[in-house]
Amino acid sequence: MSLPREEVLKAFHNQEVEHVPVSFWRHFAENEFGDVYQDPTIRDANIEGHKQYVKDLDFDFSKTMLDGYFPYPFRGVENPRDLDDLANLVPLEEDDPWIQDQVALAKEQNQIVGDLPTFITVFSPLILLKWAQIDHTKESILTSDVKFADLYEKNPERVEQVLQVIAVDQGKVVRALKKGTEVDGIYYSTQSIQDPREDNLEFFKKVMEPIDLIVQEEINRNFDLNILHVCGFAGAYNHLEWFTNYPLQVINWATLTDGVPLGEGKKLFGDRPVLGGFDNSIKGLLYTGTKEEIQQNVRNLIDEAGKKGVILGADCTVPRDTPYDHLQWVIEAARDY
Predict the structure, then answer these.
(1) Where residue 233 falls among pLDDT bands split at 50, 70, 90?
(2) Distance between CA atoms of 265 and 49, rounded to whole angstroms?
(3) What is the average pLDDT value for the chain, to the nearest integer?
(4) How far apart are CA 153 and CA 172, in angstroms?
(5) Second-level CATH architecture of 5-336
(6) Where are the beta strands (DSSP E) in 214-334?
(7) How confident is residue 206, by pLDDT bands cut at 50, 70 and 90?
(8) Is residue 252 a contact partner of residue 227, using CB atoms and an 8 Å limit?
(9) DSSP state of 261
(10) Quick one: which H or E segment has residue 267?
(11) Taking the model in full, what pTM does it have?
(12) For the chain, what are the domain ranges?
C-alpha cells in the first residue's frame, strides 16, 4: 500500500516524516524517442504500461512518462540539423497539437495514478535541440552532445535564438498543463552538454542557465511544487554546484556519477528536499543486487540523508527489464526503517 498523500507531500515540502517516500519510473514504449505522430502505438503502450505499473508496485508518488512526445516539432523547419533551416523556426501556437496532446496524455495518466502526487516531465530546450541532431535508432545518445557542440561552434547566435524560441514554447506547455490537468508539478529535466567545447562554466552562464531559467520561472509561476532533474542518464556528468541557483523546489541528480550523495547534495542546495540515491544503470545495485544488498543500501541512504525532505528513487529512468521485485524491496525497506 502506498503512503498517504499527506505524508508524501510532507517530504516534498522538506518536513520530517515517519516513512521516507519511494518511487521509480520507467519507459513503456519500445523506443521513447519515437514520434507519436508517426507511430500512434507509442501512446497506447504508454497508457497501458502505466495501468499495469500502478497495479504491480506500491510506489508513493508518480513521475509519469512522456514517451512519444520527446521530439520537439520545429514548426517551419524541415531539417533541424541545418543551421540555415533553423532560421525559419516558428513559435508554437498555444493550441498546437504537440502541446494539447501532452495535456490529454497527462489527464489520462492522472486518472490512472489516482490520488498519488504526480509530476510530468518538461525537457530543457538544450536537450530538445541536441536530441534533434541524431537518429536515435542508429546513434548513441551522447553523440547528440557532440553534434550540438558542432552546431553551436558554427553559429552560436543562431543556436541561442532557437533555444529562446523553444524555451518560450516549453513555457506554453507548462501553462497548458496547469490549465488542463491536475498534476502536482513539473519534473524539469536538464543536463550539461557532454562535450568539452561547451562543458564549461562560461557556456553554462552565458547560454544554458539563462535558457533554463526562462522555463523554470514559468514553471514556478504555475506550480508550487516542482522537481529539478539534473540528468545523468547514460553516465552523463554534471557539475552539480553550477545548478544551485536553479529555483525549483526538489532536487534529483545522479548521486554516484556526480559523486554527491543525498545528504551532501541537500546541504549544497541549501537544505532543499532531495530525491534519488539509486544508480539507474544496468550495472547499478538496483538492477544487479540481492534483496539483502538493496535493502541495506536503503538503510544506508536514510542513515546518511535522514528523514527530513528525503525521497528515495533513482538517478533517472530505470531500465525496462529491472525486476519489479527489486523496486518493491526498496519500498519495503523504506517502510520498515
Answers:
(1) very high
(2) 32
(3) 98
(4) 29
(5) Alpha-Beta Barrel (3.20)
(6) 227-230, 250-253, 274-278, 310-314
(7) very high
(8) yes
(9) -
(10) helix 262-268
(11) 0.98
(12) 5-336
